[in-house]
Design goal:
The structure holds 3 protein chains of 3 kinds. Chain A contains 10 helices and 13 strands. Chain A is α/β, with parallel strands linked by helices. In chain A, strand 4, helix 4 and strand 5 form a beta-alpha-beta unit. By secondary structure, chain B is of the alpha+beta class. Chain B has 3 domains: 243 residues, no CATH class; 160 residues, no CATH class; 91 residues, Elongation Factor Tu (Ef-tu), domain 3 (Beta Barrel), CATH 2.40.30. Chain B contains 21 helices and 15 strands. In chain B, helix 9 crosses helix 10. Chain B is elongated. The two termini of chain B are 63 Å apart. Chain C has 2 domains: 134 residues, 3-Layer(aba) Sandwich (Protein Transport Mog1p, Chain A); 128 residues, 3-Layer(aba) Sandwich (Protein Transport Mog1p, Chain A), CATH 3.40.1000.20. In chain C, strands 1, 2, 3, 4, 5, 6, 7 and 8 form an 8-stranded antiparallel β-sheet that branches. In chain C, a hairpin with a 2-residue loop joins strand 7 and strand 8. Chain C is elongated, with a radius of gyration of 32 Å. The chains are: A alpha/beta, B alpha+beta, C alpha+beta. Chains in contact: A-B, B-C. Strand 1 of chain A pairs parallel with strand 1 of chain B.
Chain lengths: 332, 585, 321
């Protein structure tokens, strides 16, 4: 009896073990089958996810595309400039998320004019909340110098937070890869995408600056901050990259601050003598038009900035801003 | 025929086959030279290579399907690979045998006791597997460091074979060199010599492949065991036990390597290879405590992120890490390279070298080009490294893809890097000496090195005319070396941009080529200048592929006057030099 | 496995099976080892290389090409002759005898873009000891080389020695080049047919693309050697776009001759409608008719010169537009 039991036990043990062996073999085979790769890896590192920036623009209204306001006080001139285009309510609807992209490229004091003036940023944020009834306003940029120092020394960090906005730092996880349709340079390139993915509207705010390589840095060049990776390589073809930026990003509104214009030693400046007071502020739905007007503040002609023609040819706007029936005003 | 005799024949067979594959990995048309496929057979049979790459890439590269056969056979039969196939194992087996020949039987039995330290190899395996397992965190294939097949392949191909061949130069016409081979040798020697202490030291304590087999053989249908419970416990079965698995008592199935010595040695034929578990009891689980398991797991997961803090694959990359043509982008490359050294072995110019840790710890023994060594940089019409790489860390590109022709014309040629002139050392730039060896050797067409002609007045080259007779000018200065200026590179400039080639000179006369005709011949008292015609070379970075022939041929042989570094390599985004180059969209 | 006898024979059976498996593996490896496919390892075998080399010869290296920028590296001072005549690229390859390494030949294929250019560089450097081959157009050989025009290419095959074996190999390579190289459609040179055939020295037609006879203004000119009763006479003609251009060029050349010491003289044959000059003892004749500029160059014998000039004029005036 015992012998029989032992034999049965042994047989059962053997069968169980054989069964498990068979299952293991099957599992190994299944893994090999599903993961079998006949082609091998390809030449190009595949992008995990290719993104496209949403189109943030609002419908055109004839005669309310570009406004130019003269005055020494930025807070007042920007209010007037936006009002001339229909007020912030035209651009920001209640409950929306707004991303504001100022120029925070350098860890430089606001008085030196290399970055967007913090009071201007704060005022736009305030408008979005108080009159636009936005749900959240982000203030963000991907600076050239260390981000934390830039937001701090430029004063934009504090100004934005004080006005109730959320400052978003350019963390690695917020970058994605994009290929611009119709672009020759922006292909499989990392871009700072996170804040813009969630936003409904995008407002760019840039100072008027001289730039040694491109001639000038204004509203279109402002979006260079959205490029990631080793973006300095694009300086080999600076005018094309600016034109492609204007194709890649379609903002709701851009504000070009010509109150204190950096006339020389751009884009970093560094000395108060580099600045000249022009007391002009431009708000525009057309970046090309805004930059065209801006170049007059730098004593430049349209032909001095090849990127203007390139952007116009790409369909991003017009250099003939008179056609847009610009609105002018003065605020003391 | 006893089974142990067959096992020995099998060991000799596979060891010979392994050596044959090592010799065969040579470019050439002779019978004993490369035929591609079989040369990687051992690496392809190795399941640790397959499983490692499955973890890092989530694919099974098709040539590695052979490993499935090994896995299936191990699941069914047990750890046959270790004592029947593995060439490294055979070496340990043999040296262990030599080491214990003079020992007494009780001493041998003592040596083959199971030791707790035999669980270390499982920790090694777990650490490696978890280093590979999380691509989103940071994953890297480091199994090649201790996986026996890549290890023995490296050691034979990059150390033993070049040393043995250096006196006869049969396998390779020129002697082969491998940087840092001393370390590979040291590790190999240590592993082999430890067998004199304890037989099969590496197999029992270190080998992660053995550990892998030990985990998957638990359901083996047949296993070694006692077929009777009555046994006098003479322990003769453990006299030559290779695995240290203690067949006399509770046999540890995960340690048994199926050498069948116990079966052969037992005078009472109590031990057999049977389908029922040993009647003296068996242990199938590896001897690993949960605590140690968790520790290994955590170390494995944290190790690679810790190493990557040096940012050696990010912006802090080392410019001399020039990878072979067809190599994947660095992150992907490190997920596939098993450091087997096959690419270094096959490279006909001996330019591919084992990397060191200057490129980061993960760079150890990965392929890096060193243009100072070998015959001529990376040959234009060769793709051998990619063809032989067993895991496609270097892709098997075609010549068309390498040259950017045919279907690849839009993508352009594969660039490994770019050559940069050191104008402080280059002869025409810094020493007023003509030389364009680099330009002559540049293999691409049109060449990636071009020259601009410059005439420089040589040292003490301003002379005063004493007398002119036809084409011969006699000077006041009288210390020229005979025909020093007659090499065809020297010119005599007489002012107003007029210049004629010097065809001969004595201590005080210069003879100018009769082809030259001066509008206004020099007169007595005029100043003339001896100038050297220099062709100053420039790199055209749009055409340079970084092949390194120029660096190899540069006559400034200590620190070369033209050196290749990896900027501009087409396999990576962040190392491109020029706009519009780099991986195609 | 308890029984002694069964145990041993079971081991033997299993052993034999395993040994059989090892044998199979060995055989499979040996079979694979005999398969000589080397192309995966970058040994490039292109169609051109295998088919052009004749029996007993193999190519020494792969085909090297040169553009206008680096042509001088290969042929040094002769480069301007080609680069100023529409040179596009040069392909060279060496062939060496499998049996005697001293016998080798180098093939030069100068792609000149069009037949006219190829003919020009061919005709202006015909060697003195040239032997023209009647079965081919524009082909001659010397003791150790073969030269010919093929479509838009000028081909030279130069051998290391005068050995007969090498010469026949060169001839064979030349034949293969002709069959393998695609021929440009633009391979007809109409002006060649215009020269009167009588007394024309075989292979005596040259084409100068740039300046002719030292005169910069006289371009694109064909010259032909004639033997009239032991007198060598060189005739020339050039087709211009319209008659007024032809007149202008004729005038330029006439003026060039005068400026350099030529003197007008009276033609012996009054019916000759052309300018006849004495140039340091030789006779020069220049005329323009229709779209053509033509004449005689450096003739020793004035009478023969004028005779040929009249024939040429006559032929040219009859040429259909």
């Amino acid at each position: 009896m015992d012998e029989q039991k032992n034999q049965n036990f042994a047989r059962r043990e053997f069968l169980t073990r054989t069964g498990k062996a068979a299952l293991s073999v099957a599992a190994a085979g299944a893994v090999a089958w599903t993961l079998y790769d006949r082609k091998g890896p390809s030449r190009d590192p595949k992008a995990k996810r290719l993104v496209q920036f949403p189109d943030f623009s609002v419908p055109k209204i004839d005669g309310q595309t570009i406004s130019i306001v003269k005055g020494p006080d930025r807070v007042k001139t920007v209010d007037k400039a936006i009002d001339l285009l229909g007020g912030i309510e035209r651009f920001v609807k209640p409950g929306e998320t707004v991303a504001i992209k100022p120029n925070v490229a350098f860890a430089s004091s606001p008085s030196l004019g290399a970055t967007t003036n913090p009071e201007l940023v704060a005022e736009v944020v305030r408008l979005c909340y108080s009159r636009g009834k936005a749900k959240t306003v982000y203030v963000t940029d991907n600076p050239i110098n260390d981000p934390a120092s830039c937001f701090m020394l430029s004063g934009i960090g504090r100004a934005a937070t004080a006005a109730g906005a959320k400052v978003i730092m350019p963390k690695d996880q917020l970058f994605e890869i994009t290929t611009l349709k119709g672009g020759t340079l922006i292909r499989n390139w990392p871009v700072f995408f996170g804040p813009f993915e969630k936003a409904d509207k995008l407002i760019g705010i840039a100072p008027v600056k001289h730039h040694l390589r491109s001639g000038a840095s204004m509203t279109m060049k402002n979006f260079y901050g959205l490029l990631g990776g080793r973006r300095n390589i694009f300086h080999q073809n600076i005018n094309t990259i600016i034109a492609e930026l204007s194709m890649m990003v379609k903002p709701t509104l851009v504000i070009l601050d010509g109150t204190q214009v950096m006339m020389t030693n751009g884009p970093t400046g560094g000395s108060l003598s580099d600045l000249r007071r022009a007391d002009t502020l431009i708000a525009s739905c057309d970046m090309v038009a805004a930059d065209t007007y801006g170049c007059s503040l730098l004593d430049l002609k349209v032909s001095d900035l090849p990127y203007l023609a390139k952007a116009e040819n790409a369909g991003s706007g017009t250099t003939d801003y008179q056609l847009l029936k610009p609105k002018f005003a003065t605020v003391s | 025929m006893r089974i142990v005799q067959t096992r020995r024949i099998s060991q000799v067979f596979f060891f010979t086959l392994f050596l044959w594959f090592c010799i065969v990995s040579t470019i050439g048309e002779q019978f004993w030279q490369i035929r591609a496929w079989p040369a990687n057979l051992f690496l392809q049979l190795d399941p640790l290579v397959a499983i490692g790459t499955i973890l890092t890439t989530h694919t099974l590269y098709w040539p590695l399907l052979w490993a499935l056969a090994t896995v299936v056979l191990t699941i069914i039969f047990g750890r046959f690979f270790c004592s029947w196939v593995c060439p490294f194992g055979s070496i340990h087996h043999f040296v262990g045998f030599l080491g214990s020949r003079k020992k007494t039987t009780p001493q041998k039995i003592q040596l083959n006791k199971y030791r707790k330290a035999q669980c270390i190899k499982y920790f090694v395996l777990i650490v490696f597997l978890f280093m590979a397992a999380f691509p989103s965190l940071a994953s890297s294939l480091q199994t090649g460091l201790l996986d026996p097949i890549p290890l023995v392949t490296r050691s034979v191909n990059l150390v033993l074979l070049p040393i043995l061949d250096s006196s006869v130069n049969f396998v390779s016409v020129t002697s082969r060199f491998y940087v840092g081979a001393w370390l590979i040798f040291a590790i190999f020697l240590a592993a082999v010599l430890f067998n004199l202490l304890i037989p099969r030291f590496y197999c029992r304590f270190v080998c992660p492949l053995g550990a892998l087999f030990g985990i998957i053989d638990r359901f083996a249908i047949w296993r070694i065991g006692k077929n009777q419970s009555e046994c006098i416990d003479c322990k003769l079965c453990e006299k030559s036990c290779e695995g240290g698995c203690e067949p006399a008592g509770n046999i540890r199935i995960s340690e048994c390597v199926l050498c069948f010595n116990c079966l052969d040695d037992c005078k009472h034929e109590l031990i057999s290879y049977q389908s029922q578990p040993s009647l003296a009891g068996e242990i199938t689980n590896p001897d690993m405590s949960r605590r140690s398991f968790v520790l290994s797991l955590a170390s494995g997961i944290l190790a690679i992120p810790a190493v990557r803090l040096s940012n050696k694959i990010g912006s802090n990359w080392f410019h001399k890490v020039i990878r072979p043509p067809g190599a994947l982008t660095e992150e992907e490359f490190l997920k596939r390279c098993i450091k087997c050294g096959q690419c270094m072995r096959i490279c006909p110019t001996n330019v591919i070298q084992p990397g060191g840790i200057e490129g980061g710890l993960e760079n150890l023994w990965t392929p890096v080009l060193n243009n100072r060594i070998g015959s001529s940089g990376c040959q234009l019409n060769c793709t051998a490294c990619g063809q032989i790489c067993p895991t496609s860390a270097i892709r098997p590109v075609t010549l068309d893809e390498k040259h950017g022709k045919g279907d690849f014309a839009e993508a352009g040629p594969i660039k490994m890097g770019t050559a940069f002139f050191d104008r402080n050392r280059c002869l025409p730039w810094a020493m007023d000496k003509p030389c364009i060896v680099c330009e002559e050797n540049c293999p691409v067409s049109p060449k990636a090195i071009y020259t601009q002609e410059v005439f420089n007045t040589i040292r003490d080259g301003i002379l005063t005319v004493k007398k002119v007779a036809g084409n011969t000018i006699e000077t006041n200065e009288t210390d020229f070396i005979l025909d020093k200026f007659a090499t065809g590179d020297y010119y005599c400039a007489i002012g107003n941009g007029q210049r004629g080639k010097i065809t001969a000179n004595t201590e005080n006369t210069i003879v100018i080529s009769s082809d030259t005709w001066f509008e206004k011949a020099p007169a007595k008292g005029d100043k003339i200048e001896i100038q050297v015609r220099l062709q100053r070379p420039y790199v055209d970075i749009e055409k340079c592929t970084g092949c390194g022939v120029c660096e190899h041929e540069c006559p400034v042989s200590g620190k070369k006057a033209i050196r290749v570094s990896a900027e501009g390599e087409t396999r990576s985004f962040d190392r491109t030099l020029l706009l519009g180059s780099g991986p195609a969209a | 496995m308890a029984n002694t006898g069964r145990d041993k024979s079971l081991q033997s059976i299993i052993s034999l099976c395993l040994l059989a498996v090892l044998c199979l593996i060995a055989i499979a490896v040996l079979i694979k080892q005999s398969d000589a496919d080397m192309t995966r390892f970058g040994v490039e075998i292109t169609e051109e290389q295998t088919s052009i080399a004749p029996d007993g010869y193999k190519t020494l290296s792969e085909i090297k090409t040169y553009t206008a920028e680096n042509l001088y590296e290969k042929i040094n001072g002769k480069a301007p002759l080609y680069t100023e005549s529409g040179f596009k690229k040069l392909s060279t390859q060496q062939f060496i005898s499998s049996t005697d390494p001293n016998l080798w030949a180098e093939l030069y294929i100068f792609d000149m873009g069009q037949a006219k250019n190829a003919f020009s560089v061919y005709s202006t450097q015909i060697r003195a000891e040239a032997k023209f081959l009647p079965e081919f157009e524009f082909t001659y050989k010397t003791a150790n080389a073969l030269y010919f025009v093929h479509g838009g290419c000028y081909v030279e095959l130069v051998g290391s020695s005068e050995a007969a074996e090498l010469s026949s190999a060169i001839a064979e390579i030349g034949r293969r080049v002709r069959t393998n190289l695609p021929v440009d459609t633009d391979s007809q040179i109409p002006e060649l047919a215009i020269f009167p055939k009588e007394n024309l020295v075989p292979g005596g037609i040259k084409l100068y693309l740039a300046s002719t006879f030292g005169c910069e203004g006289l371009t694109d000119t064909f010259s032909a050697r004639y033997m009239l009763e032991d007198n060598e006479v060189i005739a020339f003609l050039s087709k211009k776009t319209n008659p007024s251009q032809a007149q202008a060029v004729a005038q330029t050349y006439y003026k060039f001759l005068i400026d350099n010491g030529g003197e007008d003289k009276i033609p012996k044959d009054q019916s000759l409608q052309a300018k006849v000059l004495d140039f340091y003892g030789t006779t020069e004749i220049v005329f323009a008719t229709g779209q053509f500029v033509g004449g005689i160059h450096e003739a020793e014998n004035q009478q023969s010169a004028e005779q040929l000039a009249i024939t040429l004029l006559d032929t040219l005036s009859k040429v259909e537009e």
